[in-house]
Automatic annotation (TrEMBL):
Family indicated by similarity: Belongs to the polyphosphate kinase 1 (PPK1) family.
Taxonomy of the source species: Bacteria, Bacillati, Actinomycetota, Actinomycetes, Kitasatosporales
Residue numbers spanned by region Disordered: 1-46
Comp. bias (Pro residues): 1-15
EC number of this enzyme: 2.7.4.1
Positions contributing to Mg(2+) binding: 475, 505
Keyword Acetylation (UniProt): no
Molecular function in Gene Ontology: polyphosphate kinase activity
Function (record text): Catalyzes the reversible transfer of the terminal phosphate of ATP to form a long-chain polyphosphate (polyP).
Record protein name field: Polyphosphate kinase
Domain Polyphosphate kinase middle: 223-398
Species for this entry: Streptomyces xiangluensis
Cofactor: Mg(2+)
Length: 792
C-alpha cells in the first residue's frame, strides 16, 4: 500500500546514512543483514536473562504430552534453568521514579478521531496523483471497507453503551455523546471527500486510460441491448421485489447490502406504493457493457425497461439507491455458554439483525422516500449520509484487479530467505538442518512465506521423525496449505494440537468451518481460554533426533495466511533455540490444559506479564539516561492507545529519553508537548503493503534489547487476549530490526508526522520538492539486488 514514488537514490558517497553512519543505504534496507554487516556485539550482561551454558536436562515427563512415552528421550539444550524469572531484575522498575507525579488531564488524543485520521491517510493515498491509477482505485475501496467496519464495530459499540447507560467519559476527556457527534461530523466530511475523489479525479483518469466507469444513460443503444439480454437471462431470475403495504410489512434490510427503493403507481386505482429490490451481492459489482466500459450492477437493474419487467402493469415513478450499515459486533457470554462453537454460530445468525448505525442514500433521493426509510429503519437525521452515486465504492476492488500492470505497482515476487535457499540440490532445503545452524529472521512479504513458514510446517507434516505439531490459527485462507499440512500430519499419526480462535472478527464462520475439518482429520482442536482471545502467532514442532527430543519454533507478528502474507508486512523468527521451544511448550500447555504459569524464558505473554514487562523496560531506560548510559525507546505497532504504556512513555520523555513510535493506525499519544512529550516523535507509514509488525527496542545502557510479536498497545490486546512477544537474541537480528525502526522514523523517509494537536501531516518530499525515500520500496529493491534484479 505504498504511494508510488521514484526509487530512492543512495546518498552521496561522502554522506553517511541517516540510519547508521557506517552502512550504505542498501545495507540499511536489507533485512536481515549478512553476518558481516552486524556490529561487533558488546559483552553480554546478565539482566535477569539466563547465563547460557550447555547442560543436559532429563525430563520426567515430555512436555508434548503422551507422545513417544515408550522411548527414552532427553532434551539437549542451551538452558540454565527450567523455571527462570525473566524479569527478576526488573521488579524495581515496575514503577518509575516520580510515578505518582500528576500528568496533565488532556494528555491523550481521542481514539475514534485518531482512527478517522488513519482512514484519512488511506484516502490521501487515493488522492495522490503519484500513486498508480488502479492502486488509487484500490485505496478508495479500502477506505470504504475500513469505514464500514468502523461503523459496524466502533460506532455500534458506542451507541450500545450510550443506550444501556454504561458509557463513560473517554480517556481524551470527551463525553460519549460528544464522541458520537464528532464521528458523525468528521465521517461526513471524509465520505464527501472520498466521493469527490472518485467522481472528479479517479474515474476521469481511468477513462483516459481506457477504463470507463459509466452510468446507464451514458451507454450506447447496442450496449443497453446487450445488457438487457444479460438482465433477462442472469439477473432477473434472482431478483425479489418486496412490496410495502398493509399486507406486506417493511422488509428486513441486511447490513451493507445495496438496495433500490422503488415508487410505483397503480394505473387503475392511482395509489402510490413503495417496494424494495435488493441488489444481489454475489453478482459482479461492475458489469462490462463493452470492452473497457463498465456500468454498476444497480444501474442495470434500475434501467426503465428492466424495472417494468419487475413491476409489470405498474407505472414506475422513481427509484433511489440506499445502503444500511448495522451493528455487526458479536457478543458471546462465554461463561454461560456450554459449547462456545454452538453459541457463536447462533450469534452469527443474530448478527444479520443488528440495529442500524448508518444510512447511505443517493443525494437525489426524494424527501418522502427518505423519511419513510428513516422511520422504518429507526435512524436519526445525523445518521443519514447523502452522497453522489454510485454508493458502496468497495466495488472498486474488482476494478483494481483488472489486468493492467502498467497502472499498478511494479510486480514484486518474494524470494526465499537466503538462509533457507536451496544450495546445489534439486530437492527442497532441509529447514530443520538450517535451524540447527542458526536462527532465521523473516521479514514478509520481502521474504517468501511459502518457502519459509509454510515449508517449515509442510516438512514437519511429512517428516517421520516429527512426533507433534502445535499451532495457533487466528485467521487463515479458505484453501490454506497450513490447514492441509496439519491435516496431513494428523492423518499420518502425528499428535497435532490446533488452537483455533473462532472469535476472530468477521472470520468466525470460516474458522468454524476449518475447526470442524481439523477435528474430523484427527487433530486436537481447542478454542483457548474462557474470556480471552488467542491472538499470538506460534508454531511448535517436536522431533525425535536420536535419543533426544528437539523443538523447533516459529514466533511471528502475522497470521498464518498465505495470501495476506504477500500483502502484509510482518516479522517472524524460525528457531531451534531450546528456551523458545520450552516457552512455547509451556504456553501451549496453558492454552490446552490447566496451567498457572505467568513467566517465561524468552517470552512476554499477555495478559499477565506483557504490559508490566514493557513498562519496566521503559522505566529502566529513564534510569539509564540519568546515569549517562545509552537509552532510547523505539516502538512499531498498529495501534497505541493503552494509557499505562503511554504514561510510561511520557515519563521517559520527561526524563530525557528519546522515544520513537511508528504506528500504522490509532495513536492516543500527544507528542511534542513541552514538559511532557517533547522527546517523543510519532510517525506513520502507509503504502502498497499493510504495515503489520510489532517491534519494541530499548537502548538498555548500551546493550540493546529487541522484542517482537503479536501484541498491539491496546486494552483488548493487553488485558483480553493471549499475546506473545519474543526476545531477539542474535546481535545481527537485533541490529537489523533496529535499522528498520530507525529508517522508518528518519526525516528522510516518506511518512506522516503526528503533531501535538492530533493532526497528521504528510511528509513525502523534501524542501526542494524531491521525493523522500520510501521504506517499502527500499526493502523491495534490497531483495532485488540480492537476486541481481535491482531497479535501474
Amino acid at each position: 500500500m505504498n504511494p508510488s514514488v521514484p526509487e530512492p537514490s543512495p546518498p552521496p558517497e561522502n554522506e553517511p546514512s541517516p540510519v547508521q553512519e557506517s552502512r550504505s543505504l542498501q545495507s540499511v534496507a536489507a533485512l536481515p543483514p549478512a553476518s558481516s554487516d552486524a556490529p561487533v556485539p558488546v559483552p553480554a550482561r546478565n539482566n535477569g536473562f539466563m547465563t547460557q551454558h550447555e547442560v543436559q536436562v532429563q525430563h520426567a515427563q515430555p512436555s508434548v504430552g503422551s507422545i513417544a512415552a515408550h522411548r527414552p528421550h532427553t532434551v539437549s539444550a542451551v538452558v540454565s534453568d527450567l523455571e527462570p524469572d525473566l524479569d527478576a531484575d526488573l521488579d524495581a522498575y515496575e514503577e518509575a521514579d516520580g510515578a505518582g507525579a500528576q500528568l496533565p488531564q488532556n494528555r491523550f488524543l481521542d481514539r475514534e478521531r485518531s482512527w478517522l485520521a488513519f482512514n484519512e491517510r488511506v484516502l490521501e493515498l487515493a488522492e495522490d496523483p503519484d500513486t498508480p491509477l488502479l492502486e488509487r482505485a484500490n485505496f478508495l475501496a479500502i477506505f470504504a471497507s475500513n469505514l464500514d467496519e468502523f461503523f459496524m464495530v466502533r460506532v455500534a459499540g458506542l451507541k450500545r453503551r450510550i443506550a444501556t447507560g454504561v458509557a463513560t467519559r473517554s480517556a481524551s476527556g470527551l463525553q460519549p455523546r460528544e464522541v458520537l457527534e464528532m464521528i458523525w461530523a468528521r465521517s461526513r466530511e471524509l465520505m464527501a471527500r472520498h466521493a469527490a475523489c472518485y467522481q472528479e479525479d479517479v474515474a476521469p483518469a481511468l477513462a483516459e486510460e481506457g477504463i470507463h466507469l459509466v452510468r446507464w444513460g451514458e451507454l450506447t443503444e447496442k450496449e443497453q441491448a446487450r445488457l438487457f439480454t444479460l438482465f433477462r437471462n442472469q439477473i432477473f431470475p434472482v431478483l425479489t421485489p418486496l412490496a410495502v403495504d398493509p399486507a406486506h410489512p417493511f422488509p428486513y434490510i441486511s447490513g451493507l447490502s445495496l438496495n433500490l427503493a422503488v415508487v410505483v403507481r397503480n394505473p387503475i386505482s392511482g395509489h402510490r406504493h413503495f417496494a424494495r429490490v435488493k441488489v444481489p451481492p454475489l453478482l459482479s459489482r461492475f458489469l462490462e457493457a463493452s470492452p473497457g466500459r463498465y456500468v454498476p450492477l444497480e444501474d442495470v437493474i434500475s434501467a426503465p425497461a428492466h424495472l417494468e419487467e419487475l413491476f409489470p402493469g405498474m407505472e414506475v415513478l422513481e427509484h433511489h439507491m440506499f445502503r444500511v450499515t448495522r451493528n455487526e459486533d458479536l457478543e458471546v457470554e462465554e461463561d454461560d455458554a456450554e459449547n462456545l462453537l454452538q453459541a457463536l454460530e447462533k450469534e452469527l445468525m443474530r448478527r444479520r439483525f443488528g440495529p442500524p448505525v448508518r444510512l447511505e442514500v443517493e443525494e437525489s433521493i426524494d424527501p418522502y422516500v427518505l423519511n419513510l426509510l428513516r422511520r422504518e429503519l429507526k435512524v436519526s437525521e445525523a445518521e443519514v449520509y447523502p452522497l453522489p452515486g454510485p454508493l458502496d465504492l468497495t466495488g472498486l476492488f474488482g476494478i483494481s484487479r483488472l489486468d493492467r500492470p502498467e497502472l499498478k505497482y511494479p510486480k514484486f515476487v518474494a524470494g526465499t530467505h537466503r538462509d533457507l535457499s536451496e544450495v546445489e540440490s534439486a530437492s527442497a532445503p532441509d529447514i530443520f538442518a538450517a535451524l540447527r545452524e542458526h536462527d532465521v529472521l523473516l521479514h514478509h512479504p520481502y521474504d517468501s512465506f511459502s518457502t519459509s513458514v509454510q515449508a517449515f510446517l509442510e516438512q514437519a507434516a511429512t517428516d517421520p521423525d516429527v512426533l507433534a505439531i502445535k499451532q495457533t490459527l487466528y485467521r487463515t485462507s479458505g484453501d490454506s496449505p497450513i490447514v492441509d499440512a496439519l491435516i496431513d500430519a494428523a492423518e499420518s499419526g502425528k499428535q497435532v494440537l490446533v488452537l483455533v480462535e473462532i472469535k476472530a472478527r468477521f472470520d468466525e464462520q470460516a474458522n468454524i468451518k476449518w475447526a470442524r475439518k481439523l477435528e474430523e482429520a484427527g487433530c486436537h482442536v481447542v478454542y483457548g481460554l474462557v474470556g480471552l482471545k488467542t491472538h499470538c502467532k506460534l508454531s511448535l514442532v517436536v522431533r525425535q533426533e536420536g535419543e533426544t527430543l528437539a523443538r523447533y519454533s516459529h514466533v511471528g507478528t502475522g497470521n498464518y495466511h498465505p495470501k495476506t502474507a504477500r500483502l502484509y508486512e510482518d516479522i517472524g523468527l524460525l528457531t531451534a533455540d531450546a528456551q523458545v521451544g520450552a516457552d512455547l511448550s509451556d504456553l501451549f500447555n496453558r492454552l490446552s490444559g490447566y496451567s498457572r504459569r505467568e513467566t517465561y524464558r524468552r517470552l512476554l505473554v499477555a495478559p499477565k506479564s506483557l504490559r508490566d514487562g514493557l513498562i519496566a523496560r521503559i522505566n529502566k531506560e529513564a534510569q539509564h539516561h540519568r546515569a549517562g548510559r545509552p537509552a532510547y525507546v523505539r516502538i512499531k505497532v498498529n495501534s497505541m492507545v493503552d494509557e499505562a504504556i503511554i504514561d510510561a512513555l511520557y515519563r521517559a520523555s520527561q526524563a530525557g529519553v528519546p522515544v520513537d513510535v511508528w504506528v500504522r493506525g490509532i495513536c492516543a499519544v500527544r507528542p511534542g508537548v513541552p514538559d511532557l512529550s517533547e522527546n517523543i516523535r510519532v510517525r506513520s507509514v502507509l503504502g502498497r503493503f499493510l504495515e503489520h509488525s510489532r517491534i519494541f527496542a530499548f537502548g538498555n545502557g548500551g546493550e540493546p534489547e529487541v522484542w517482537f510479536g503479536s501484541a498491539d498497545m491496546m486494552h483488548r490486546n493487553l488485558d483480553r487476549r493471549i499475546e506473545a512477544l519474543v526476545r531477539v537474541k542474535d546481535p545481527a537480528h537485533r541490529a537489523s530490526l533496529s535499522r528498520l525502526l530507525e529508517t522508518g522514523m528518519s526525516d528522510k523517509t516518506s511518512s506522516w508526522h503526528l503533531g501535538p494537536d492530533g493532526e497528521w501531516t504528510r511528509h513525502a518530499a523534501d524542501g526542494d520538492g524531491q521525493h523522500l525515500r520510501n521504506v517499502q520500496e527500499m526493502l523491495i529493491d534490497a531483495r532485488r539486488r540480492r537476486r541481481g534484479k535491482a531497479t535501474p
